[in-house]
Amino acid sequence: MIASSSQQGSRRRRGEVELGLAFVIPVIVIMGGLVVVPLLSTMIDSVYRINPMHPGTPFVGLGNYVDLFRDPAVRQSWINTFYYVVMAVILETLGGLGTALLLNRIRYGRRWLLAAVVLPWCLPPVVNAVVWLWIYNPSYGLLNGILQSVGLISAPVVFFNNRYVALFLVTIVHVWRMMPLTAVILLAALQSIPGELYQAAKLDGAGAFKCFRLITMPLIASGLAIALSQSTVFAFNLFDEAWILSGASLDTRTVIIQTYMFAFQNMKFSLGMALSLLAMLASLLISLLYVLKVYRETRFD
To answer: Coiled coil: is it a keyword of this entry (predicted)?
Structure first.
C-alpha cells in the first residue's frame, strides 16, 4: 500500500516536471531565437570588417572598438546620451513621484485622472515627437506663441540652434512620454503601504514631511529602484524623439542614432554592431546597480 502511494506520488511529480518543461521549452526556444542567437551573432560580427563597399570580411579583432573610441562623433554621441540619461532620470523620477503622491491622495475620479496621465505613454513615440515638433516650430509653434504672449521673447526663436536648449527640449519630449510609467510604478508602491503606519506616526506627533521621509521613502525604495532602472534603459535607447526633432544633428545625436547611421546610412555594419554592444553593456551596468538595490531592499535575512 505504501509502495503504491509512493509510486503514485513519484508519477505525479514526474508529470508536474514534464508539464513545467512543456511550458518552459517554447519560451526558451523563442528567447534563444530572438535574443541569444542574434546577440552572439552580433558579438562575432563585431570583430570582423563587414562593409558592402569592401569585399570580404577579414578578422580585425578589437579594431572596430578602437575606431569607435577614436571617432569624435561617437564621443559626442556618448556625451549627449549621458546628458539625456541624467536629465531624463531626474525629471521622470521627480515628476513621477509627485504625480503618484497626488493620485494616491485623490479618492474620487482617480481612474479618469490616471487614464489622462497614462495617455502620453500609450501613444506611439513617433506621434508624440511629431506633436512636439509642431509645438517647437519657430514659425507657428505653440511654445513661441506662449513666450511672446507673456513678453519673454519679442520675436520667434529657433530653439534647436542652441545645443543645450535642444538637448533639454528633446529630453522634455522623452520625459513627457515616459514619466507616466514611472508614476504608475510608484503609485502601485504607495498603495501597498498600510495606512495604519501613517496613523501611528501621526499619533506620535510626526508631521507630513517626517512621515514621507521615514515611512513613504523606505517602503517604496524597491519600486523606486525599478522605476529608475526602466527610466535609465529607455533613456539609453532614446531614438525617435531625437531623430524626429533634430535628425542626424551632432548636437543632439544619441548613441542609438549613431549606431543607425553607421549600420544603415554609412553601411559600416561592423562598427554599428560594436557600438550597439557597447550601448547595451553601459545600459546593463547602470541598471545592475538598481537591480542590486531592489535585491537588498527585498531580501529577508
So the answer is: no
* pLDDT at residue 9, rounded to an integer: 59
Per-residue cell: 201? 506616526
Q: Taking residues 63-80, report their average pLDDT.
A: 91
Of 189, 180, 178, 174, the C-alpha closest to 117 is: 180
Helix, strand, coil percentages, rounded to 5, for the chain: 80, 0, 20
Give Cα separations from 105 to 101, 116, 196, 198 (angstroms). Answer: 6, 16, 15, 13
Residue type, 160: F
Q: Please choose, from the candidates 33, 83, 35, 62, the residue with its C-alpha nearest in 3D space to the C-alpha of residue 278.
A: 62
Kindly calculate the radius of gyration of the chain based on its CA atoms and give it in whole angstroms: 25
Q: Name the band, by pLDDT with cuts 50, 70 and 90, for residue 7.
A: low
* Distance between CA atoms of residues 158 and 136, nearest Å: 8
Rounded to whole angstroms, how far apart are CA atoms 201 and 218?
Answer: 14
Query: CA 290 to CA 285: how far, in whole Å?
Result: 9
User: Would you say how long the chain is, in residues?
Assistant: 301
- Phi, then psi, of 59 in degrees rounded to 5: -75, 125
**Mean pLDDT, rounded, for 58-62:** 83
pLDDT per residue as tens digits for the range 121-178: 888 888 899 999 999 988 888 888 888 888 888 888 888 888 899 999 999 999 999 9
